[in-house]
Design brief:
Elements: H1 18-36, H2 44-49, H3 70-82, H4 88-101, H5 115-125, H6 151-160, H7 168-179, H8 185-200, H9 207-223, H10 226-229, H11 236-239, H12 257-269, H13 274-282, H14 288-303, H15 310-313, H16 319-334, H17 355-364, H18 368-391, H19 396-424, H20 440-450, E1 454-455, E2 460-461
Helix pairs in contact: 1-3, 1-13, 1-14, 1-16, 3-4, 3-16, 4-5, 6-8, 7-8, 8-9, 12-13, 12-14, 13-14, 18-19, 19-20
């Protein structure tokens, strides 16, 4: 948000294909999970003699090749729930459908459920409020919330942009989603670091620098929160700039949440492809499916869906179903679908309007309603232009980027005006929001709503 000092404004340097990131992240997690299922609990020494190099079947759980575990099942529950918004009770109900009726499972059978997760779901089934169900003891720091948290990265992106590193509300949501099953602060931090890295990889020109940037952003946020200070020491190795240089012998790959996060990040930082990352994770041994799933989600985001080997995709159970869930999330948050009765306040890209025309309108009519209307038009105009950028290549891309930058400059001006109005009214709802490419929405929401506008999946409609 605009504050007493100049606002920190994040302008996209290139368009991000979020549909590919969603597919890459979720299916990347699923494929890696399936690679690890047959060898779960196999020790590292055994895998050194017989390493996993391809999709296997049977093994630990006697399941056919391409079978995924609770890691993917619970990820799909969260993914399916988020397509309708954030509803903690709905997430828990979907977890129950999985554990009791084997929905969201690969073959209609549930296996490999963690103790902390099972206990939390039993509490919810008995009437406990969703956010009171998670285990709170130090012994409840398994990896059961970390393994399923990835879909929240895309929800947060739609609400706060690609950088939520100083947004208290975003971290509260992360902690709440973790707390459905794992409510200890150590698990909160693991999920916070993981999602901070995940969103940093959405537009990663350099994997290592972006991943470390995500780690530093999370460390900075938690370092300012008294209630988390004592727990940060458990992540000191990850916070070390030389973390990736640790020898494999120093990396533990069990079910403890700190070990799982360390293993996944270490594999990501020490490989250069999706395939090499997830195979390195599986061959660490131990909790092979979850370590690989956590690493595979990040690798899938970074390298993209197309980097996942087709020979593995062809064996994944219910692949089309998983793609369908990914598509529904993308459509809800990142495409332009409006209610039938909506009047869309937007300027089509082809119309011969300029930012100068908009400024003249405000000079002639400087009312709050006109300001809200103009903001809706400019907000939606920049949205259309961003969608255009997804489809362009050079030299058209550079020309359209220059046009986008001009509209973005006007966008910042309008947000500044709206923020000034709300600041004069001491409106607390703008206190925690910083100007980012999508986070602007929450800065101006109070003024927009009182002037008759409502959210049409990130676009203002009336």
């Amino acid at each position: 948000m605009a504050t007493e000092k100049e606002a920190d404004v994040s302008i996209p340097q290139k368009s991000i294909n979020l549909k590919n990131k969603i597919l890459g992240g979720i299916i990347g997690l699923c494929v890696a999970d399936a690679l690890g299922v047959p060898v779960e609990f196999t020790n590292r020494e055994s895998l050194k003699g017989n390493p996993v190099t391809d999709m296997r079947g049977y093994g630990t759980y006697n399941q056919p090749p391409g079978t995924w575990s609770d890691d993917t099942s619970m990820t799909l529950c969260l993914l399916d729930s988020l397509k309708n918004g954030l509803d903690y009770a709905d997430i828990m109900r979907k977890f129950l459908l999985w554990i009791k009726k084997a929905e969201y499972s690969p073959h209609g059978k549930v296996f490999d459920v963690g103790i902390t997760t099972r206990s939390a779901l039993a509490r919810f089934a008995s009437g406990t409020e969703p956010l009171e169900c998670g285990g709170i003891s130090e012994r409840d720091n398994g990896n059961g919330s970390l393994m399923r948290i990835l879909p929240l990265a895309f929800y947060l992106c739609s609400s706060y942009g690609n950088n939520f590193a100083d947004n208290d509300e975003a971290f509260r949501i992360i902690h709440d989603v973790s707390s459905l099953t794992h409510a200890h602060k150590r698990s909160h931090i693991a999920c916070g670091i993981y999602l901070s890295v995940a969103v940093s990889l959405f537009d990663a020109a350099d994997l290592k620098s972006e991943a470390y940037s995500g780690i530093r952003d999370a460390k900075k946020w938690y370092g300012c929160k008294d209630e988390y200070i004592d727990e940060l020491k458990h992540y000191n190795r990850i916070f070390d700039d030389d973390f990736m240089d640790l020898p494999k012998e120093a990396i533990k790959s069990g079910g403890y949440v700190v070990d799982t996060l360390e293993s996944a990040l270490w594999c990501l930082l020490n490989t250069d492809s999706y395939e090499s990352c997830v195979l390195k994770a599986v061959n660490l041994g131990g909790d092979t499916d979850t370590v690989a799933a956590v690493a595979g989600g990040l690798a899938g985001i970074c390298y993209g869906y197309e980097a996942i080997p087709q020979k593995w995709l062809g064996q994944i159970a219910r692949l089309e179903y998983i793609k369908e869930l990914c598509g529904k999330l993308y459509e809800h948050y990142f495409t332009m679908e409006f209610p039938d009765d909506a009047v869309i306040m937007a300027i089509e890209p082809s119309r011969d309007f300029t930012p100068s025309d908009i400024r003249k309108r405000l000079e002639n009519n400087n009312t709050e309603l006109e300001l809200a209307t103009v903001h809706a038009e400019v907000n939606n105009k920049t949205g259309w232009l961003m969608h255009e950028l997804d489809e362009l290549e050079e030299p058209e891309l550079s020309k359209s980027k220059a046009i986008f930058d001009e509209w973005w400059g006007l966008y910042k001006e309008l947000v500044g005006r709206i923020t000034d109005i709300l600041k004069k009214e001491n409106d607390s709802r703008i206190a925690n929001h910083k100007i980012t490419d999508r986070g602007l929405y929450y800065v101006v929401k109070p003024l927009m709503e009182r002037n008759g506008f409502r959210d049409g999946a990130g676009w203002w409609v009336k």
